[in-house]
Design a protein that fits this description.
two-stranded antiparallel ribbon; alpha+beta; five-stranded mixed β-sheet; single chain
Length: about 300
Amino acid sequence: MVTIDKKAKPKIYTESDHILNDLKEELTSLKSRMNLIEEEQENNRHLLDQLSFQEDLANELIAGHHEEIESNKENYKVIANVMHSLKSPVSNVVENLAGIISEIDDKDAQDTLKECINTASNVLSSFTEVEEFCMDVGESFQINQQAVDIKSFFKETVSNLQKELSFSTPQSLRLLMDRTIPENGPLYTEVIKQCLESLLKELIYSKPTAEVSIRIGSEKNEMKYGIEISDLTIQLEADQPTDITWNESWVESIQMNQSQLLNSGFNLLRIRDSLRKSGGQLEISKHNNKIIGFKVYLPLTY
């Protein structure tokens, strides 16, 4: 018996079939993509919730920080007022002692009273320094960056300082600039001028015969949001160490060297405070634990 195998008829794919198959594949891909998008949306929603929380927390911290700053300013102003009040009786003592000296003939008594006047005058000067420092810190401090030609700015600034501080010879003050310094950039120009002048006066006060060099450079700090953050560095260094011994504690070092520091150390405190407010910092450069200069860091990139 002969059997006839039935052969399947060949399926003929038309253009429409190809289109339908392509559409089915595209639909499957779209469904997969939609699922991924939904997952991403859920993740983004969760991330947004976290960011919202972090923003609220950051705002609270910033508000608290501002409140703390204002409180500290008020505290400094209170201290300044107290020092101002204390100056009055001390001033009266100086005046009364001066009147008594003029009325007595005893030389030993006059010398003793003059020593008392000198002591009272020194106390009065210290009260004035504390009062002025506290008022400076307590006042609002507004600083702005200016876009400048950096090398020209420092050449002009140091040239003016050379004239103002009346150095004995042109070689007493040298300006050195590293190649790493950008040609142009934003600088806290007023802060830099004030700090340079004050730090130079500090070195001259403690070491009048020293020759001082000022080196301007830059140091890479970190990468943030794809931007390289850099610091401008200003290093002032005498050619010989001072007689001032400096340890890690500013409080102890200032207390130990009051007589050798300008304005009993308040000059350095003012500089450090103004640099902190502009995002910078002040470091003491030492040689065998003796001050030989200072190094200033200031934001250069932002």
